[in-house]
Amino acid sequence: LASEAMTLSPHTLRPPLPLSLPLPPTSNRRPPPRPLHPALARRRRSVLLPKPPRAGAGAGDGMATHGAHPTLLEHMGRAGAPADLAVLVAHIQAACKRIAALVASPGNADLSRAKPAAAGAASAAGRDAPKPLDELSNEIILSSLQSSGKVAVVASEENDLPVWMCDDGPYVVVTDPLDGSRNIEVSIPTGTIFGIYDRLVELDQLPVEEKAQLNSLQSGSRLVAAGYVLYSSATIFCISFGAGTHGFTLDRSTGEFVLTHPSMQIPPRAALLYSSKKQTLLYSSQNL
């Protein structure tokens, strides 16, 4: 066989077939897109293109003329708020940031449960038994107000009596550090309520306990500022200095409260209806 193979002509031997045949060249071009329906094209343009600014928008809306959202302290500076009040609000917002992080932490389930108390203790105080989360929020608020150096007395829902802090503090603060803490276990929003008064200097000669209580019992018409901080999917700091209410949302990338809801108002005609069953308290079970 070897001798016969040697006598064969090289033209009689065929080369082996390739393992894979080369594919014909293809084009990298994509087919042209089909035209959109005119209605879809208009909708796409309205979404992608920036909206033109509203006529008259600018400083009158409480926003910066260059379109940026001012922070809470920047807004107070533009409104001409006193420096002492700005320092106090800065410490309140710092405390609320800590409470917001505490409320959102995974370990708040145990903190939101009421501690066992003696029988009748809650009813004697006229409120629910305090929870560890309430007490911790109260400590955060009191510590922040103390460090501000601008508060003479604080009346907190978590304390039986007002707390006198310093003799030269120009302001009085009343607060509920964490309203609705029982709602945390079912993921319902909670919040911090606060009001700020001027200290009544005419009471400075009274004993500490007496002037602390009288400063805390001022009429709501004497409020310098009041606000509510909502802890939910977003943390919103709503505050009024007597001329409109503005909402500031916590920007977690910068740690600043920025103006997002200027001049908040209740709509003249609400889209939703609200009901309450408190009117049934006027009727006894015998009359029903």
Task: Please provide a written account of the structure.
It is a single chain. It contains 8 helices and 8 strands, in the order H-H-H-H-H-H-H-E-E-E-E-H-E-E-E-E. The chain is of the alpha+beta class. It has a domain at 69-113 and 128-234: Fructose-1,6-Bisphosphatase, Chain A, domain 1 (2-Layer Sandwich). Strands 2-1-3-4-5-6-7-8 form an 8-stranded mixed beta sheet, sandwiched between helices. A hairpin with a 4-residue loop joins strand 6 and strand 7. Helix 4 (83-104) packs antiparallel against helix 7. The protein is elongated, with a radius of gyration of 34 Å.
The poorly predicted ranges are 46-67, 119-124
Supply Rg: 34 Å
CATH third-tier fold name of the domain at 69-113 and 128-234: Fructose-1,6-Bisphosphatase, Chain A, domain 1
Largest sheet: 8 strands, mixed
How many individual helices?
Answer: 8
The helix/strand order is: HHHHHHHEEEEHEEEE
- First CA to last CA: what distance? 119 Å
CATH superfamily of the domain at 69-113 and 128-234: Fructose-1,6-Bisphosphatase, subunit A, domain 1
Shape: elongated
What distinguishing features does this structure have?
288 residues, alpha+beta, Fructose-1,6-Bisphosphatase, Chain A, domain 1, 8-stranded mixed sheet, elongated
